[in-house]
Amino acid sequence: MLIIALVLALVGLVALVFAVVTSNELVAWVCIAASVLGVVLLIIDAVQERRRGDAGDKGDDSGDAAVDYPEEVAEDEPATDAETEATEESAVSAEGRSDDNA
Predict the structure, then answer these.
(1) Is it the case that residue 44 has pLDDT exceeding 80?
(2) How far apart are CA 38 and CA 74, in angstroms?
């Protein structure tokens, strides 16, 4: 329907230019009719789109589900026991390697 409205707008523009150039009253009325019909089609399309949107909001919400992302850990929060153990193990293994090479 939007394509039809676009074509009517193009016809109206061409008819307007032709009516001004030739001073033809009949072509001017064609321009007005095409413009009015195009506006009516745009209004009908907008109403149908709104009805489709309202019907979609009342139906299944699976497509627009909100995603709950985990919060980031702040720098000043204490580390957990697992994080502390992992840090100590990496420090020990790094120290052990440097002693073996020396």
Answers:
(1) yes
(2) 58
